[in-house]
Specification:
The structure holds 2 protein chains of 2 kinds. Chain A has helices at 10-24, 30-47, 55-69, 73-77, 80-88, 90-99, 124-128, 154-158; strands spanning 113-115, 134-135, 143-144, 164-166. By secondary structure, chain A is mostly helical. Chain A folds into 2 domains: 10-99, de novo design (two linked rop proteins); 112-166, Alpha-Beta Plaits, CATH 3.30.70. In chain A, the strands form 2 sheets. Chain A has a two-stranded antiparallel ribbon. A two-stranded antiparallel ribbon of chain A has the order 2-3. Chain B is 34% helix and 13% strand. Classes of the chains: A mainly alpha, B alpha/beta. Chains A and B meet through α1, α2 and α3 of A and α2 of B.
């Protein structure tokens, strides 16, 4: 059992584990070599907000097959984090796919950054933004252009006044 | 009475032999479990997971190709979950495979295609990223297309276990795994012997021969050229399979007729050149035998074997017969003797060889085999390419009226016919050598000791009180074993025959693909092809090469006698050590 707080996204966690096992796959047997790749692709899609209805069922179908048909222990256990998170946190997957929401605000494709009234206009965020998505006059509240924003989170980490929030 | 155990397959009780795999037991009971990476001649890989079954009491599915049966075992091969898992596994292979079946060389002959159909894959669930690599077009003979590879590993096992070449291996890991020669070298620079057995066992078109059919079609329409074909013995024994016939039908006459209709002016028989080879080779052997060396003499007909020997056994080069292969002898005669006869400029002759072999494409390009500065064989096409050309040219191969080979290079003895089977060259050479040496006819000319498909066959023949010790090896892995014996004890054998492919030329890398109900290099199929050639031998009134009147005429009118100066110039060659990257010469003394 792994204990994780509410700031971790279950889909993202599953993706993290699968990325690891997929990199570790030796490539000998088909289910592990090809199957974990496809599962990883589906999870990536979901975390980018491009999840489709039916993705959860595909993950379950692939995962169960890979567990039972793989040659060695790595492949047989590779889908466990995905199947386990689907079993216990299915609603998080569904939110990602249907409402395009990541409740832990981890999946970059599903969040936007906003500047709140706590902004002092110090322009630290404006200076650090790599794509010049932030505008505003000095000492006045700044704003983020969601079209330009690449959700890198640098402004969020830079702001000293907690004036930037993920939505 | 033999011991049996009881197993249940799909709720039906069967009595089967112990000590076998689930797949073998199921085969014996009439269940053909779908399979892909499994091949009975190769080691068990258990990698593709297509042959999975459910065994009661075991949590996961087991690969039936490698799981042993046990008493009271309950096996399910076809229930809903296992069918879906198997289907999904094959779909995963398809998802990482180009969707170009319509334009693929193996369309209709592809194991993956058949498997996908049999699994009932009618739509796709898991489409995603596909691998994308460059094709390796460097070799004269074999093209490697990693995009089509499904990593079953049959080529890798064939190349190392049967052929002992170890050219191919799986590099990188996981999704990035690729089958390639060492250091990702181009085929042309690698140790690949161009035998083409990877093509034979590949389930898809990841390995195919370098195709010369378009070039040949163009040249066949060139009115200025005199188009001459020669046909290897084993092509006639196998080409019928490409048209849906059962293996083992001799289609010699139909093949000649079809080649004529395709635009060839003359169709000669490589069996004639095989007789010529025997005249030279038997004489060379007797010369070495009388001069006490260098023995053993090792045959040189097989092109893949030539390259193998130059790479791995350069210390034995003096033991290799200097005779060219029948193809090159025939081609040399075409561009000299035949050109003189018809008073034609040899440069205007297009010399085409219809071969069972991909390595012959390599041989044809060897510079040592040039005659008067010209390539002796201009184009080599395999049996498979020939089948395609005949179909593409719209020739009704099966119903065509058989025709005879053309003179003066078309008449052959039975000895020439059996060249296509392992042991055949030796048998043919002994038939002639015995008579040349003893001056009397060998009565029992069928040497049963060196027939058959055992990897290495040994036999003794008494020649004027001397015991001749013979060895025959087929497949380069067996060649390796025989040559190690020779390296250890040079006096062990007098005469060694080596064929690069399993079964000899009948199992060549250019022969028709296995059909839906057979497997590549199936021994039964090889036996039937061999029987076709042995049958051809038995049908002939002339069964010894030196009795071939056209060969006698050739010597009388043109060459003089075997091993004459002219023969040496036109029919013999030389070899040199070849060291592709990664190979160390055995001649190198470490100081």
């Amino acid at each position: 059992m792994i204990v994780i707080d509410e700031d971790s996204c279950m889909v993202d966690i599953a993706k993290f584990f699968l990325e690891f096992t997929q990199n570790e796959s030796c490539g000998k047997c088909t289910p592990c070599r090809e199957g974990t790749k496809r599962m990883f692709e589906i999870l990536t899609r979901i975390t980018e907000g491009k999840g489709e209805p039916g993705d959860i069922e595909k993950l379950e179908r692939l995962g169960r097959m890979i567990q039972k048909a793989s040659l060695c222990g790595l492949g047989q256990s590779a889908p466990n984090p995905v199947l386990s998170t689907i079993k216990n946190f299915r609603e998080e997957y569904e939110e990602h796919i249907h409402q395009k929401v990541c409740r832990a605000r981890v999946c970059a494709g599903l969040i936007t950054f906003q500047i709140t009234e706590q902004c002092t206009g110090c322009a630290a965020c404006k200076r650090i933004c790599p794509v010049a998505a932030i505008s505003g006059s000095p000492k006045k509240m700044h704003a983020i252009d969601p079209e330009k924003c690449i959700r890198c989170g640098l402004c969020y980490e830079t702001c000293k006044f907690n004036a930037i929030e993920k939505v | 009475m033999e011991e049996h155990i009881t197993i249940t397959i799909n709720d039906k009780i069967h009595r089967v032999k112990p000590d076998q795999t689930i797949m073998q037991a199921a085969d014996a009971c009439g269940y053909h479990i779908p399979r892909l990476c499994y091949h009975p001649k190769l080691s068990i890989e258990g990698a593709c997971r297509v042959c999975i079954v459910q065994v009661e009491g075991i949590k996961n599915y087991v690969a039936s190709c490698c799981y042993p049966v046990a008493d009271e075992m309950k096996i399910y091969t076809n229930h809903k979950e296992i069918r879906q898992a198997r289907r999904d596994i094959v779909e995963l292979l398809l998802d990482n495979h180009p969707e170009d079946c319509h334009t693929c060389e193996r369309d209709g002959n592809c194991e993956l295609q058949r498997l996908a159909y049999a699994m009932g894959i009618r739509h796709r669930h898991f489409v995603g990223q596909r691998k994308s690599y460059e094709k390796d077009l460097s070799s004269t003979s074999v093209i490697r297309d990693p995009d089509k590879c499904i990593l079953c590993g049959r080529c890798v096992r064939m190349c190392s276990e049967i052929q002992g070449v170890h050219c191919l291996g799986q590099a990188y890991r996981g999704f990035n795994t690729v089958v390639m020669p060492a250091f990702n070298m181009p085929f042309a620079e690698s140790v690949c012997t161009t035998c083409g057995q990877c093509i034979n066992v590949c389930p898809t078109a990841s390995f195919v021969e370098k195709n010369y059919t378009q070039e040949l079609f163009e040249k066949l329409n060139d009115q200025d050229l005199i188009k001459v074909a020669q046909v290897a013995p084993s092509v006639r024994a196998a080409i019928g399979e490409g048209f849906g016939l059962a293996p083992g039908r001799n289609m010699e006459g139909q093949l000649v007729a079809a080649l004529k209709r395709m635009g060839f002016d003359y169709v000669f028989d490589t069996q004639f050149s095989a007789d010529l080879t025997i005249m030279e080779e038997a004489s060379e052997f007797l010369e070495r035998f009388q001069a006490k060396g260098p023995l053993p003499m090792i045959t040189s007909c097989s092109s893949a074997w030539m390259k193998y020997m130059e790479q791995f056994y350069p210390d034995l080069i003096e033991n290799i017969s200097t005779c060219k292969s029948p193809m090159s002898m025939g081609a040399a005669m075409t561009k000299t003797y035949f050109a003189n006869k018809i008073k034609a400029d040899p440069k205007k002759i297009l010399s085409v060889a219809v071969m069972c072999c991909t390595a012959k494409k390599y041989e044809a390009a060897r510079p040592e085999l040039r005659v008067n500065g010209m390539r002796s064989t201009d184009i080599v096409i395999t049996t498979r390419e020939t089948v395609w050309m005949i179909k593409s040219a719209g020739i009704d191969f099966l119903n065509i009226k058989p025709e005879k080979f053309d003179e003066p290079l078309g008449l052959s003895s039975g000895a020439g016919a059996i060249f296509g089977v392992t042991g055949g060259v030796m048998e043919a050479a002994i038939r002639t050598a015995y008579e040349l040496y003893m001056g009397e006819t060998l009565i029992d000319i069928e040497l049963s000791d060196i027939r058959g498909f055992e990897g290495i066959k040994e036999a003794q023949v008494v020649l004027d009180g001397h015991e001749l010790r013979l060895a025959v090896a087929h497949g380069l892995g067996n060649a390796h074993r025989v040559l190690e014996m020779v390296r250890q004890d040079r006096d062990r054998f007098h005469f060694v025959e080596v064929m690069g492919c399993p079964g000899g030329c009948i199992g060549g890398g250019g022969q028709p693909y296995a059909t839906a109900n057979s497997i590549p290099l199936d021994e039964e199929c090889l036996k039937l092809r061999a029987q076709a050639l042995y049958g051809l031998d038995r049908e002939k009134t002339i069964r010894r090469s030196h009795e071939n009147p056209d060969v006698q005429r050739l010597y009388k009118e043109f060459l003089g006698k075997p091993l004459s100066e002219k023969s040496h110039k036109l029919l013999h060659t030389h070899y040199a050590e070849k060291l592709p990257r990664g190979i160390v010469s055995p001649n190198l003394k470490v100081v």
